[in-house]
Amino acid sequence: MDDFENVLAGVGPRLRDLRRRHAITLAALADLTGISESTLSRLESGGRKPTLELLLPLARAYNVPLDGLVGAPETGDPRVHLRPVTRGGMTYVPLTRRPGGLHAHKLVISPTAGEPELRTHEGYEWLYVLNGRLRLHLGDRVLVMAPGEVAEFDTHVPHWLGPDNDQPVELLIIFGKQGERAHLRARPA
After folding, report:
1. Given a cut of 80, is residue 5 above it in pLDDT?
2. DSSP assignment of the chain
């Protein structure tokens, strides 16, 4: 058996193991993915070869990368190769790569001239100041935050963030476009 056939033969048992670890029935998985129960059963037993059209919804349902389903070989290099994006004096370094859900970024904001322009958009944001001093305009409030301080807010509230002085500010940001919250607070009974 060559490497390609070994990879394909390993997909079915991996899918069965994932389904059992998630404690989900074939019927529930079929509802979640739009793939018929019989097709899911044949995939798990090896009676059907996996295709990209079948594996993508399964990877999404199990919240795992596609290479995790097919048992892609280790690259040998554990480093994450980040691709920063710079726009309007802000450098975003994506720390998550999966579609949908919460996204984490390291954000470096350079000092800029001019008045803050408050904006709104869909979502919910959680931020942690790593370095520098952050000035956060949130509605009619202005907060100055130091390293180690955290804020979270609904991004429907007009907001702006930037350095509080002439030095860059570095943040860790977790953002959910659909309003997902980064964490839940325990409330006293």
Report:
1. no
2. --HHHHHHHHHHHHHHHHHHHTT--HHHHHHHHS--HHHHHHHHHTSS---HHHHHHHHHHHT--HHHHHTPPP-S--------EEETTEEEEE---SSSSEEEEEEEE----S----B--SSEEEEEEEES-EEEEETTEEEEE-TT-EEEEETTS-EEEEESSSS-EEEEEEEETT---S-------
